Amino acid sequence: MFGVKLSRTLFAFAWLAGFCGASAAVAADANSKPRRRADVPWVSLSHQRSLESKPAAADEGEKVPVVKKSDGKSPLSRMVSAPEISADKFDYLQGGDGDLVATGNAKIDDEKFELRADKIKYSQNTGAAEASGSVKASLAQARVAAETFRLNPSKEELSTPHARFGSSPIFVEADEINSAKNKVSFDNPIVYIGEPSPYSMTASASQIRYDTQSELLEFDDTIVSIGPVPVFYAPYYSQYGLEKPPFDIQTKVGYNSDYGAFLANTVIYNGLGNFDPGFLLDYYTERSVLFGPALNYDYKGVETWLRGFVQGAYINDHGSADILGVDSLGRRIGHDRFFAQMRHAQMVSDNIAVIGSLAWWSDEFVTRDFRPEFFYGDQIPDNFAEVDYYGPSYTVSLFSRFAPNNWEIVQQRLPEARFDLQPGEIFNTGVYQTMYASAGYLRNSGPEQLLSETFETARVDAYYGLMRPIRLNSWSTITPVIGGRLTYYGNPKNGNSSYTRLLGQIGFDAQMDVWGTWEYKSRTMGIDGLRHHMTPVISYRYIPNAAQGSGAIPGIDEISIEDFTYPPILDLGDMRNTDRLFKTNTLRIGLKNTLETRDETYGSRELARFDIFQDFNFDKRVLAQNDFKESSFSDLYTNVSISPARWLTVGCYNRFNIENLNVPETNAYIGLFDSDKFSLYLISSYLDGAITQYSALAEYRISERYRILARWAYDHRLSMLTDQTYTLWTRLGNSWVVEYQISYRSGSSRQNNFSFGARISMAIF
């Protein structure tokens, strides 16, 4: 695949107005030590006395204000009225105005400004300065080099002909710069994105204007070029604000057997302020045209903010039946394919939040085929909307989960309201209470191949619990726990008008904290002292008759995915498989160990970890991890990692079945590093009856301009190498990174092919 990412291409334009921001110092070496005049510019005694006679209030008025973002002021208005001047020689002009001429390594220093030149003419009355000869200035974030430079802080004016200025990674050359009050203009500027080189991206315009008060940025006759080749022209462009580039452009170009030759584009226009519209436009010679709208938004008000994005597209897919294939249920994928993605987050006020997510796909593989960045981050999408109100010690929420897709099981909330009380002490008794209550209308939905029955019911679910932490000594505590949970169903599956289940629990949580320190040092391993923290934990819960009502309760919330790979939830109030609970009489014993050393950068660094947990079921408990069979023991969970030095890390997560004496799951890895010169990861993943895979990731830096990267994946069950990817990373000039890539995939239900190409991205953003 050949990919070109042109994100933030025109950011240089927006950066130009950064000259109205914070200061940056510039130092220039002097051939000889300048003679410093402490009485300049207060040259005359009468002038000094007049300053001393000013009231304190006037002095307060001369203080430099705190500069906030987008305060609408130019940097010249923030300069103090009396900068310090130094030079090899001072002269006074005739006329009685006290104008000073400084020559030879002349320099003006101010808190917000610095100016160096062969000659500086300075006016004591107005504070105006005119510099000539090898002028070097520091104003805001820019360094300026010119032959002539005029500055008048009292009038907030600045001008200079033919100046070169900038700050990495942006460098600019302009015929003239003028600034008056809140207006800044640049005539015939050429912007170099990155240090100038034959491959640098440049942007030229007849004029650029910026208003520091309204934050309006305008460009006339703009041409964007790569080296000597022009690639983009805009007769006029404007945008508000300086935080984003004018455009975000992502382009991929390539060829493979599934798509043919293709060109895929995502373009976002940032010139409208808080809301940035755009579009998706792809062309595939073997698949047709994909097109759709896009919108990014990010608004910040006085009491509210919101951010998110919307993208969607449609394609009449001309791929053959073999290429389109089938979904995970064996159903043929049609030619009319589309997707709609949305993420939304908002704070309406300090107490009210809104969040939402939409992933509406015509089939489960449409994003994998055309926008894999959506698919691999969320392969089984969750569609929901939620409003939360945050009280001083409680939270009220309204949550809705909906099912736009016909290929996944969804536990819908239509909607569900919930009240959560944070744990809090009751009248200084040492007893803490916690509770929640929810009420909603629920429905399970999904394709017939996955659901044998569908249910819908009104449900009320509430829990109230008490706990009393008891500190046995400085290193151990025990917390007795008691609680009850009530669940009401308005449409039970046994035909009755309603069903109510009442459950209770009793138990405790105990924990010890044991510490040990040693002043052991090793320069080879980078060890500076050792600290061992050991935390034994014991938890017990007794929940009798939890399986009651199984013949009446509609099975909607039945399984929590964490129950398959992690220790099952013990506490009645935390269990999320509300509609399929099981009797619990369980003791959990665990031990957490960490070994750390001091670290100059992060404070401490973990050298080793060993965590182990085991449940003992006094009454056999039904466990999802054991195919919902009754078990006397849970799996034995271990998590081990060792990082004795920065260049080595080894780790393994493991589940061991005590009753069957087998290993249902293990994930292990080894990492070797040599600073940024070399890295190697070896990874193995095993899940009983599902996965046996091995993979490796390697990177080697040949020089500052060249790196080699490789990735391999081997599937033991298929007895084949399923993924091979080889990449040569190189830097082109000072502006671009080019990645040449060859890859081959096999053994997958989709996208088994050989591909090659390159990806180009900007190196400076």
Q: Globular, elongated, flat, extended or rod-shaped: what is the shape?
A: globular
Note the gap between the termini. 23 Å
Largest sheet: 27 strands, mixed, barrel
Give the mean pLDDT. 82
Residue windows where pLDDT falls under 50 for at least 5 positions = 1-80
CATH names the topology of one domain as lipopolysaccharide transport protein A fold
In CATH, the homologous superfamily of one domain goes by the name: Lipopolysaccharide (LPS) transport protein A like domain
Number of helices: 7
Proportion in helices: under 10%
Strand content: over 45%
Care to count the β-strands?
Answer: 45
Would you identify the CATH architecture of one domain?
Sandwich
Can you put this structure into words, describing what you see?
The protein starts with a strand and ends with a strand. The strands form two sheets. The protein has a 27-stranded mixed barrel. The model is unreliable at 1-80 (pLDDT under 50). Helices cover 5% and strands 59% of the residues. Among the domains are: 2-240, Lipopolysaccharide (LPS) transport protein A like domain (lipopolysaccharide transport protein A fold), CATH 2.60.450.10; 386-453, no CATH class; 455-646, no CATH class. A hairpin with a 3-residue loop joins β40 and β41.
